[in-house]
Amino acid sequence: MSGIPFIPFAEGEALLDWIGLTDALAAGHDLPKAEIGDTFLYRDPDTLLSRAAWIDGLGMAVKTATVFPGNPGRGTPMINGGVNLYADGDGTLEAIVDFHLVTKWKTAGDSLLAARRLARPDSRRILIVGAGTVGRSLHDAYTAAFPQAEFTVWNRTRASAEAMAAERPGLRVADDLEAAVHEADIITSATMSTEPLIRGAWLQPGQHIDLIGAYRPDMREVDDAAISKARVFVDSYDTTIGHIGEIKIPLEAGTITRDHLQADYYDLAGFTRAPDDITLFKNGGGAHLDLMTSRYILDRWRTQ
């Protein structure tokens, strides 16, 4: 193990930048399509996710995550796990990367790549729905691409939103979600909701909606009206259709058809918008993105 680097969170993060990561994610989708294998096991309300990916030319990654929503009440993190990165040429273990480092940068970077393509470049008002760990990561990521933007956060529990705002000068707290959605150019949502929080009736022409929170077939953050009126994009057809409620539920109900989904990241040229379009991106966060992110992190580590 002495020759295999372990890349810890703080030391690894100091080497990274959000624009560089999104460029690396875009480049990763120019390679042959990833082979992926996802396994979800449940013991309500707990989840075990095992995700593996293999991209010819980039290597292999295996990531296992445990999601235990009750952990914070016991003083331990909700999400735990590990990531192994394997060499493309001979399959040897090449690096062990801190799970939380990969997850933070993969998750927010995934959304930021879409926003760089789909949100209006002049977007100045960004609403973050959810004041958890991912909400904080989204603030970091979106600040890099929209440095002149004003940020607002809404959370079911106002105290959590206030705590996040106290950490980040200039971040405002919203009390009324509907009003905050009306005012925003970009809405980025990262909640654990199984019932829609954001209504299509609230959306305005020109907005971009970025959805991160839902990862199970029973979870969704927007209602049918929002899905129906927006041009919908996903990071991967393979990891969203049939797997995540945000897409699975309206497809199975016949609310939308398959051709309502405009493109995934293997067709980045299709990520376009007209000025008055409402664009909606579903971040599914598959293992191929963990692999691309881990490779970016290792490449940066090696340039020290």
Please report the distance between the alpha carbons of the first and last residues: 20 Å
Q: Strand count, sense and closure of the main sheet?
A: 7 strands, parallel
Mean pLDDT: 95
- The helix/strand class is alpha/beta
Helical content (DSSP H or I, runs of 4+): 25-40%
Residue stretches low in confidence (pLDDT < 50, at least 5 long) are none
The amount of beta strand, in percent, is: 15-25%
CATH classification, class level of the largest domain:
Alpha Beta
The best one-word shape is globular
Describe the structure in brief.
This protein has 304 residues and is α/β, with parallel strands linked by helices.
Topology:
Blueprint: E1 6-7, H1 9-13, H2 18-28, E2 35-43, E3 46-55, E4 59-67, E5 79-86, E6 93-97, H3 99-118, E7 125-129, H4 133-145, E8 150-154, H5 158-167, E9 172-173, H6 177-183, E10 186-189, E11 208-211, H7 224-229, E12 231-234, H8 237-240, H9 245-253, E13 279-282, H10 287-302
Parallel strand pairs: 1-6, 7-8, 7-10, 8-9, 10-11, 11-13, 12-13
Antiparallel strand pairs: 2-3, 3-4, 4-5, 5-6
Helix pairs in contact: 2-3, 2-10, 3-4, 3-10
